[in-house]
């Protein structure tokens, strides 16, 4: 008797949640929706923050990173800032519906254990693969200190 393929091999799980990718694309396209509060479940941890466009992420990353380069002269720091910010240029034009985005960018990200216990740290910028997200909810978790 031949062995039949199971449903999981015939219909493998998608590499990423198309609905989450759709939300990321809405923000990336710079419509009137500038950010979306979200909590992502990833490998037993929770990452909570606001989805921001790739352009905003790289602009903020560039400013933060070059702000710490106080041993460099102002012209060199500005050149580094501009180079890093240019990585966001791909997001400054309308994003296609296909392919859906592979990366999600969060601002003011906080990290929590699966039971909601906050992991020490300051809100930060965060970038991750949409394919690594196990699940998500709309809305941000708040640490007890922020409440």
TrEMBL record:
The record's annotation in NCBIfam families points to: GvpU (NF041667)
This protein is called: Gas vesicle protein
Biological source species: Achromobacter spanius
């Amino acid at each position: 008797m031949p062995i039949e393929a199971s449903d999981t091999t015939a219909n493998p799980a998608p590499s990423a949640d198309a609905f989450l990718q759709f939300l990321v694309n809405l923000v990336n396209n710079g419509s009137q929706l500038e950010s979306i509060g979200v909590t992502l479940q990833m490998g037993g941890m929770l990452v909570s923050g606001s989805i921001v466009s790739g352009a905003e992420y790289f602009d903020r990353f560039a400013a933060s990173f070059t702000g710490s380069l106080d041993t460099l002269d102002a012209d060199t720091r500005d050149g580094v800032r501009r180079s890093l910010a240019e990585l966001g240029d791909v997001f400054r034009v309308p994003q296609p519906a296909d392919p859906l985005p592979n990366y999600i960018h969060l601002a003011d990200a906080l990290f929590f254990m699966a039971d909601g216990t906050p992991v020490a740290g300051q809100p930060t910028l965060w970038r991750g693969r949409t394919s690594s997200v196990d699940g998500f909810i709309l809305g941000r978790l708040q640490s007890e200190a922020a409440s």
